[in-house]
Amino acid sequence: MEAEGWVLGPPLPPPSLGGGGEAEADPDPPAGAPGASRGPLLAAAAEVLALDDEEDDLEVFSKDTSLAEVNSFSPSMPISPSSMINQYKFEDEPELRDLFITVDDPESHITAIETFITYRVVTKTSRGEFDSSEYEVRRRYQDFLWLKSKLEAAHPTLIIPPLPEKFIMKGMVERFSDEFIETRRKALHKFLNRIADHPTLTFNEDFKIFLTAQAWELSSHKKQGPSLLSRMGQTVRAVASSVRGGVKNRPETFTEMNDYMETFSQKINVLDKIAHRIYKEEREYFNEMKEYGPIHTLWSASEEDIADSLKGVASCIDKCCKATEKRMAGLSENLLPILHEYVLYSEILMGVLKRRDQIQGELDSKVDALANKKTEKDLFSEEIGKLEDKVECANNALKADWDRWKQNMQCDMRSTFTNVAENNLRYYEECLATWESFLASQTVDLRVEEDSEDRP
Prior knowledge:
The chain has a three-stranded antiparallel beta sheet with strand order 3-4-5. The chain has a two-stranded antiparallel ribbon with strand order 1-2. The chain is mostly helical. The longest helix has about 80 residues, at about 375-455. It is elongated, with a radius of gyration of 28 Å. The protein has helices at about 40-50, 140-155, 180-195, 205-210, 215-220, 230-245, 250-300, 305-370, 375-455, and strands spanning about 1-5, 5, 100-110, 115-125, 135-140. Strand 1 (about 1-5) and strand 2 (about 5) form a beta hairpin.
């Protein structure tokens, strides 16, 4: 949640949402209301709920950016930026909210070799480990990528929030829309909010540096990272671990997690594709409706006897067209981003489970080596003890983060589909009322006409 750009810091457990009843589809939606393509989305939604480098930054500047955001782990709260429940003040409850972050003000930078966007990142905090209570820095997309990679390296079995994907179209830079810039800004804003809400990631040192260091300081800090040879060694070890095959002693809990994620990934990807297809069809329908209404108005000029009826139809179509536009905005702002975010989360979770298996595989290989060695047993036993501790820490971290992620995912999904259902109800009710009003007016006109004919 955000007020004047400020976002919650340490997490609170998401509120428990009551199971909502499923909306019953209207078999005969009113004219002007496209309902035929909604079935696959609702069906796929039910299935989901049932599941217990450097960046080129070739972009253009968007002058119009909305600062309204929703706290990512409080899905039950109203999404309206004007809602008073979203207006959090820095002074309120400091013991619960001690880190406030916002991402805004995209700004274009043009050099001899590239054009890229930076975003302002403003932080307010009352934490003692920060030297100041307020910071303002500018970051480009590749800086966010750096932060994500550092978090993954420091916490290999924690679920790091997803970043928006790269969206580069070579040779078509000028065609990047304000909508794309705003979509990316919101995603970067949510990325930092997710980290700030996380009980472990929020205290990561690289996260603090990202929020506080000026550009030259961050650049200097990046150069202090692991060398190329070190990174290559990590990659080689990861590949070797995967080549060895499956983990011998994987606990049943993580096998169940892996099976869950395979099913979740399949369902959420299908749902994401269907939702985008529905949005595309809705846009095509909207464009047709915009041309359909004016034809009736033009026709009324040459048909005096039915001119009022034709104008009435044109007016109804225009109102339904506006309702469709609002419905499309709801899909693009609320449904599509959430679905795609969890598509990315499914990829992240599979990667986390794979990294846990690599740690387990390293332990298994040492145990096998010890069984075949007659000398250096003390050395191997010491290494095995350290690896056992490492595996236990990795397992405990993933279990805790898994429960937290799953609870948040279910809350996000319930909130999103409830919002979609409410938007659908408003849309169909508006269209229905529009056409019922038109029919009522035509009935009155018909009775007046019949009365006049009956008079002597």
